[in-house]
Design brief:
The complex is a heterodimer of chains A (261) and B (336). By secondary structure, chain A is of the alpha/beta class. Chain A has 8 helices and 10 strands. The chains are: A alpha/beta (261), B mainly alpha (336).
């Protein structure tokens, strides 16, 4: 088990130290230590309710960690961690629930929360439309007649919606892309495309956190794996240390007994 | 048809009807109704005085409808603006009767509107209280505060006392009542604010799906609060406009404004579910509602018919809007 830093001397893009998160009586995360290094794809595995989504939303600044836990970005401790701050520093997320506004046209969704403005301080709607059209044809490979930047998201298929969410995450030159169950509800070809996309992140020298129920999707693309169980880090593995069969065995064991060994 | 595919994989934009259907619908209703009035009472409706009359009175609630559109798009409602109108105008009156120059008192009044809007916005967005409930509460609160401060008395606001104020809110320029010039100016401003600023973009996103908006780093609390503050400020401006029009501030200012204004917003095609809406729709709808008021009486129809006519126009328009909207949606869904 790789307890110590897997890359001595290197600074993680994002690091959580002793992070806990309590919602009322429920402790969703307890004393999490978690780090993602540059150019690394980290897998996050765990059963339902293990705290994967809470962890991701804490990394993203949506949840504030309980007192005593700290967030570091490139080695610097950040106290006023928020979604706007995280996105400003280059952390983007493709959420499980996609985080789209379905009654709005694609261009509004594409630039949600960071709309470009003209020199006059007004919204650059022309740019938003043109860039959305360009991104859709270049990156998402949309050729469908129903997809135009002015189309509202409701009219799109699940894969197309996911395409919007993924393109949105990549467009802004993200340092770290978080993918929360990106293959959920997708067809086989759409899933394949999404997985290719994850490997492209690494080729571009960027980092990613990849969360999925399906270990067959996670294992091939990641460098390191965190296993979460009941809000705790149950284990951290380098992919070279563990085979997929071994990992599956341990996941079964952790679900039954709460320990990996 | 499958052979209707665009060439070279070029993507087709949504149809003009799809995008502007509800706005065109409301303008159509307005025109049809106007023609109806012209046919029913040609002598009245070919004379300009009727248009001047309702160009003076409609903006009194119409400008609030423009601002309220923002609140409704965020998925909320403000029922307290009639009380804010009165409270802000009361503060203005106290200012001028205590020796303040009227522009300073105006700023004070508008600031009161902003403060009331902030209270509403804070309670709704920060404490997550349904706006339908809490703005009934604040409505009594603001009205009660105004009645206590004014002790139930009014204040005269005549033209020889405040010529500047009357020039600003009651005169006509180039034959157009200044009220309608304000309405046009505010239409331009609110259109820009809604469609060409980040705040406007966030109003749509927060109203559509607040969770998604928050996940993408949009401060929903601030967006909603600012929408309520806008309604508060414009509400006070409308309160002053109404009082100056009647040369007198009545402590009951704002009574009778609630339903007209809210009806204008919904008649204008802004969805009660949040996320969609337009200030142009609210603008046209305000004049339709204003025209019914002025039109029925001027056409010599018994004034008891006003409410009946209101009801018919609003119910039929909203039903038609919904049906057209569903039809358009279904087409675009089955088209893929």
């Amino acid at each position: 088990m790789a307890e110590a830093s897997p890359r001595p001397g290197e600074t993680p893009v994002i690091e959580l130290r002793n992070v806990s998160k309590t919602f009322g009586e429920v402790r969703s995360l307890s004393d999490i230590n978690f780090a993602v290094y540059p150019g690394e794809i980290v897998g996050l595995l765990g059963d339902n309710g293990a705290g994967k989504s809470t962890l991701v939303k804490t990394v993203m600044g949506f949840h504030k960690p309980d007192a005593g836990g700290d967030v570091f970005f490139k080695g610097e401790k950040i106290d006023d961690w928020s979604v706007a701050r995280a996105r400003g520093l280059g952390i983007e997320t493709v959420y499980q629930e996609r985080a789209l506004c379905e009654k709005q046209p694609i261009w509004r969704n594409m630039f949600m929360g960071r709309e470009p403005r003209t020199a006059w301080g007004l919204l650059d709607v022309k740019k938003m439309r043109e860039e959305s059209a360009r991104l859709m044809s270049e990156h998402m490979g949309f050729t469908s007649a129903a997809v135009h930047p002015d189309n509202v998201v409701t009219t799109m298929s699940g894969g197309e919606k996911q395409g919007v969410a993924i393109t949105r995450a990549l467009y802004f030159d993200a340092q770290l892309v978080i993918l929360d169950e990106p293959t959920m509800g997708l067809s086989l070809t759409e899933t394949k495309k999404t997985l290719e996309f994850v490997s492209n992140i690494k080729k571009a020298g960027k980092s990613a956190i990849f969360i999925d129920h399906n270990i067959f999707h996670v294992y091939p693309v990641v460098d390191r794996l965190y296993v979460l169980d009941r809000g705790k880090v149950a284990g951290v593995y380098d992919k070279s240390e563990i085979s997929m069969e071994d990992l599956i065995d341990r996941l079964y064991r952790v679900a039954r007994t709460g320990t990996l060994e | 048809m499958s052979d209707a595919k665009p060439k070279n994989n070029r993507v087709a934009p949504p149809s003009f009807l799809r995008r502007y259907g509800s706005q065109l619908g409301i303008i159509g209703v307005g025109l049809v109704m106007w023609l109806g009035f012209v046919i029913a009472a040609p002598t009245v409706f070919t004379n300009t005085f009727i248009y001047v009359a309702f160009a003076q009175t409609t903006p009194q609630f119409g400008i609030i409808a423009l601002a309220l559109t923002f609140v409704v798009i965020t998925g909320e409602i403000d029922l307290s603006f009639p009380s804010i109108m009165a409270l802000g105008t009361a503060i203005f009156c106290i200012g001028v009767t205590h020796g303040l120059v009227w522009p300073a008192a105006l700023v004070l009044g508008l600031a009161t509107g902003a403060a009331c809007g902030w209270v509403n916005g804070f309670l709704v967005s920060w404490l997550n209280i349904p706006s339908l409930v809490i703005t009934i509460g604040t409505s009594f609160l603001f009205r009660g505060l105004e009645l206590v401060i004014m002790n139930g008395t009014g204040v005269p606001l005549t033209a020889d006392m405040y010529p500047g104020l009357h020039a600003l809110l009651r005169e006509s320029y180039f034959g157009v009542p200044v009220q309608t010039l304000w309405m046009l100016a505010l239409l331009g401003l609110t259109w820009l604010l809604l469609n060409r600023t980040r705040f406007g973009a966030h109003v749509f996103l927060v109203g559509d799906n607040p969770t998604s908006a928050r996940l993408m780093g949009i401060d929903a609390v601030s967006v909603k609060t600012r929408a309520f503050m806008l309604t508060g400020v414009i509400g006070v401006f409308a309160g002053l406009m109404t009082s100056v029009y009647g040369y007198y501030f009545w402590p009951t200012t704002g009574d009778g404004f609630l339903l007209n204004t809210i009806a204008s917003v919904f008649l204008g095609g802004t969805s009660v579910f949040g996320g969609t809406g337009s200030v142009i729709g609210s603008f046209v709808a305000s004049y339709i509602i204003g025209a019914i008021n002025a039109g029925i009486v001027s056409a010599g129809i018994n004034a008891f018919y006003t409410q009946l006519c209101f009801g018919l126009v609003i119910v039929i328009s909203v039903v038609l809007q919904t049906i057209i909207d569903r039809k358009i949606r279904r087409q675009s869904i089955t088209g893929r």
